[in-house]
């Protein structure tokens, strides 16, 4: 039973992301999500009471994934290898969340800010960059670390119109980010 509930929640989240991408977050209603899924609004309410709850669940996936990277990095020895591995893990995380989620995140910054998710995500982003540049945390090195992470984020949100598979896009983004890391 839990497996079916989990599958349904994933379907809801996926359809919501499609609609948010097509119509925008503000212009998408729970009714439209339910209609696209072919379920009643009451069935949708069983899993998510509001659009904000859907976004919160997606945001939790991103925050939880970054938290895992942070835990790993805090236990790993400082240095260039750790910085490279953070980039690879960050690329894998964003790739696993999918282009629609990352694009939604970038295109709907006001919604994330209004819902209170943006601040914690920005903090986690800065923690990753600090871990990449420890122990010195020289400002220019931190700048490069942040740019490396942004290269991955932006590639997923801005390159969707290119004729590349998700795997090709992710591999290219991580390669570019690793090139930036070499400048630290």
From TrEMBL:
Keyword vocabulary terms for this entry: DNA-binding, Transcription, Transcription regulation
DNA-binding region: 29-48
Cross-referenced InterPro entries: DNA-bd_HTH_TetR-type_CS, Homeodomain-like_sf, HTH-type_TetR-like_transc_reg, HTH_TetR
Gene3D superfamilies xrefs: Tetracycline Repressor, domain 2
Domain of life: Bacteria
Residues in HTH tetR-type domain copies: 6-66
Pfam families linked: TetR_N
Name used for this protein in its record: TetR/AcrR family transcriptional regulator
Organism this protein belongs to: Nocardia tengchongensis
């Amino acid at each position: 039973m839990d497996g079916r509930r989990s599958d349904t929640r994933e379907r809801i989240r996926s359809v919501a992301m499609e609609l948010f991408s097509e119509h925008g977050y503000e212009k998408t209603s729970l009714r439209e999500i339910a209609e696209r899924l072919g379920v009643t609004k009451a069935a949708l309410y069983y899993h998510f009471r509001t659009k904000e709850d859907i976004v919160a669940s997606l945001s939790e996936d991103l925050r939880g994934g970054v938290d895992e990277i942070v835990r790993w990095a805090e236990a790993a020895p400082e240095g260039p290898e750790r910085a490279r591995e953070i980039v690879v893990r960050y690329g894998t995380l964003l790739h696993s969340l999918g282009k629609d989620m990352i694009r939604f995140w970038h295109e709907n910054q006001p919604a994330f800010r209004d819902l209170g998710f943006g601040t914690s995500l920005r903090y986690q982003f800065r923690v990753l960059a600090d871990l990449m540049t420890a122990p010195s945390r020289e400002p220019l090195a931190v700048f490069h670390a942040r740019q490396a992470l942004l290269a991955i984020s932006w590639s997923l949100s801005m390159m969707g119109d290119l004729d590349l598979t998700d795997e090709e896009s992710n591999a290219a983004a991580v390669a570019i980010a690793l090139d930036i890391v070499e400048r630290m």
